[in-house]
Amino acid sequence: VKIELEDIKSEIEFWNSAIICYVLGAIPPIGVFEGFIRRIWRMKNVDKVANIKNGIFLVRFESVEDRDMILNSDRPFFVHKPVIMKPWTENVDCTKDSVRSIPIWIQLYLDFKYWGIRSLEKIVGKVGKLVKVDQATEKRRD
Fold first, then answer.
1. What is d(CA 94, CA 52) in angstroms, rounded to the nearest whole number?
2. 65: helix, coil or strand?
3. Residue 5's pLDDT is what?
4. Which residues contact residue 138 at a Cβ distance below 8 angstroms, ignoring those fewer than 6 apart?
5. In this structure, are residues 67 and 19 in contact, taking their beta carbons and an 8 Å threshold?
6. What's the start-to-end Cα distance of the chain, in Å?
7. Which has the closest alpha carbon to 68: 87, 49, 46?
């Protein structure tokens, strides 16, 4: 059988607004993961959530814009484990990638005098790279 691009063009267009995702270190049941996705992205028009294989999920949004907003936003955590995401493409590899670095949330119990960005960058620099600070610190920067 020879499949032409025209034969699959509509399916490619349909799934273009989807992402492939999985939870690093866990394989949640589809019902639990779908509930989680629909709750955290309720404002982003999630159309479908499907289990591709062994804890790898396909999440389709109603628009590519919604998909791109999700991919460019903070990565969610599922029961303290990071959710790895990548855009779906017609040639996507639906396996779990080897992960070289992951974002983690650390909570530091510091005195107020250490809440400045300069001191936080120095302290966090010992364990990694400062990506984001909480709202209280963020408001002080404005």
1. 8
2. helix
3. 87
4. none
5. yes
6. 62
7. 87
**For the chain, what is the mean pLDDT?**
85
Residue among 67, 80, 66, 65 nearest 21 (CA): 67
What Cα–Cα distance (Å) separates residue 100 from each residue in 9, 24, 84, 105? 34, 12, 12, 17
Tokens 């992951």 correspond to: 102
Q: Which residue has the tokens 């250490």?
A: 114
Q: Tell me which long-range contacts 11-14 makes (C-beta under 8 A, separation of at least 24).
A: 12/90, 14/60
Q: What pTM was estimated for this model as a whole?
A: 0.68
For 52-98, how does the pLDDT look when each residue is reduced to its tens digit (9 = 90+)?
988 999 999 999 999 999 999 888 999 988 899 999 988 877 777 66
The letter for the amino acid at 55 is G
Angle, alpha carbons 9-11-16 (nearest 5°): 95
Q: In which order are the strands placed within the sheet that holds 81-87?
A: 46-53, 56-61, 18-23, 81-87, 77-78
